[in-house]
């Protein structure tokens, strides 16, 4: 027996698959556009597709008495039959192969221009589907109970589409979690700014009005200044955009610190240099802390912040200040190196310090 498939199932599935291949090719060639939440384009296209498939089914049912089914004579010895198909059925396979080939080419070109895992998966799946349709054109076993290489290609196509769908859903939920995290960070930044940072600023303002001849007042004022600077850096880090690249995050942070400390900062970032959000925030905080130390403690007039992209990302902060002896054990507390070392350790980075009296200081962080 070559096939028990009915005439209606044979012809409706052939044209239905052709419609699907055409829609996939159109999706690969259509210009990209962002749909608004209230846009009716997506549901309109969905309803149009359903209406087209219903029209195909209705037409096939109306013409069913005049349609032939693909069958082949079964050899007397029970061997493989010589399957033959109607020219129209073969044409649907050829057009389907061309449509999938166009879709694969379109998705591949878009995947090169725009790094998107879904586009790559769809390109691979379209190539597999085109191979299946081409095999069915030369050996039309798709409408029989026989399993051929085209069925293998077809199964691989559906597996690839399933993987693409799962990957896209996983990516979607990651983006949802990132947005929720960003909103929580911004809420914490607002609370920190309106609460702790404002209170510390008030304390510092009051301390500046007290007699400066007292050593305890000077120490309290210095502590309050460091606390205010730390609170401002925390607000900037928490309220920043999670998708912001490293160069923009550094530019905003060092500009704010330079204006506050009254020093000049030169920023030099290699093109394309970037880091994951957690490492980026730590690098920004370390750079801000290094500039803050260089201005009041090192009396630096110029600070250079460099990011070098290589096998390992490197952040360097150099200043032209007075420097200090790096062998002294008290330098950590005096220059805030404890916090910088802890931040570097949290992102599994190495923090190196080079300083000599009269020759300035360099802080280097190597991811």
Summarize the structure.
By secondary structure, the protein is an alpha+beta fold. The chain is 62% helix and 8% strand.
What does this structure look like?
The structure is a single chain. A hairpin with a 5-residue loop joins strand 2 and strand 3 (314-319). The chain has 2 domains: 7-146, no CATH class; 244-367, Heat Shock Protein 90 (2-Layer Sandwich), CATH 3.30.565.10. It contains 10 helices and 5 strands, in the order H-H-H-H-H-H-H-E-H-E-E-H-H-E-E. It has helices at 7-29, 41-63, 87-113, 117-138, 149-208, 215-239, 246-261, 277-294, 331-335, 337-346, and strands at residues 264-269, 302-308, 314-319, 350-355, 361-366. Residues 328-335 have low confidence and may be disordered. It has 367 residues and is of the alpha+beta class. The protein starts with 6 loop residues before the first helix and ends with a strand. The protein has a 5-stranded mixed sheet with strand order 1-2-3-5-4, with helices on one face. Helix 1 runs parallel beside helix 3 and helix 7 (246-261) packs parallel to helix 8 (277-294). Helix content is 62%, strand content 8%.
Mean pLDDT: 79
Detail the poorly predicted runs.
328-335
What is the distance, rounded to the nearest whole angstrom, between the alpha carbons of the first and last residues?
67 Å
Total DSSP E strands: 5
Spell the H/E element sequence.
Answer: HHHHHHHEHEEHHEE
What's the Cα radius of gyration? 34 Å
Strand order of the largest sheet: 1-2-3-5-4
Assembly classification = single chain
Total helices: the number is: 10
Global shape: elongated
Binned strand content = 5-15%
Alpha-beta classification: alpha+beta
Helical coverage, percent range: 55-70%
The largest sheet, given as strand count, sense and whether it forms a barrel, is: 5 strands, mixed
Total individual domains: 2
């Amino acid at each position: 027996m070559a096939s028990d498939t009915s005439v209606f199932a044979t012809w409706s599935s052939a044209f239905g698959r052709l419609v699907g291949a055409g829609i996939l090719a159109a999706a690969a060639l259509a210009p990209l556009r962002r749909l608004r939440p209230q846009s009716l384009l997506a549901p309109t296209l969905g309803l149009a597709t359903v209406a087209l498939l219903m029209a195909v089914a209705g037409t096939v049912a109306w013409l069913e008495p005049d349609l032939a089914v693909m069958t082949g004579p079964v050899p007397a010895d029970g061997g493989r039959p010589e399957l033959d198909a109607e020219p129209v059925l073969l044409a649907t396979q050829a057009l389907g192969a061309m449509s999938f080939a166009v879709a694969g080419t379109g998705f591949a070109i878009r995947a090169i221009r725009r790094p998107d895992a879904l586009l790559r998966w769809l390109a691979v799946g379209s190539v597999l589907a085109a191979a299946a349709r081409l095999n069915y054109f030369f050996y039309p076993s798709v409408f029989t109970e026989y399993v051929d290489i085209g069925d293998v290609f077809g199964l691989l196509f559906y597996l690839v589409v399933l993987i693409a769908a799962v990957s896209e859903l996983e990516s979607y939920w990651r983006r949802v979690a990132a947005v929720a995290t960003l909103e929580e960070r911004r809420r914490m930044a607002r609370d920190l700014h309106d609460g702790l940072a404002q209170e510390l600023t008030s304390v510092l303002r009051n301390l500046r009005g007290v007699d400066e001849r007292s050593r305890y007042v000077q120490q309290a004022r210095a502590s309050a200044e460091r606390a205010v600077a730390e609170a401002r850096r925390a607000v900037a880090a928490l309220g920043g955009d999670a998708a912001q690249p490293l160069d923009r995050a550094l530019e905003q942070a060092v500009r704010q610190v330079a204006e506050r400390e009254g020093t000049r900062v030169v920023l030099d970032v290699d093109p394309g240099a970037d880091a994951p959000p957690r490492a980026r925030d730590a690098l920004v905080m370390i750079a801000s802390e290094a500039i803050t130390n260089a201005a009041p403690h090192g009396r630096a007039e110029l600070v250079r912040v460099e990011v070098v992209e290589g096998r390992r990302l490197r952040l360097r902060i150099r200043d032209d200040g007075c420097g200090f002896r790096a062998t002294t054990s008290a330098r950590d507390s005096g220059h805030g190196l404890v916090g910088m070392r802890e931040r570097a350790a949290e992102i599994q980075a190495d923090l190196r310090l080079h300083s000599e009296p009269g020759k300035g200081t360099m802080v280097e962080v190597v991811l």
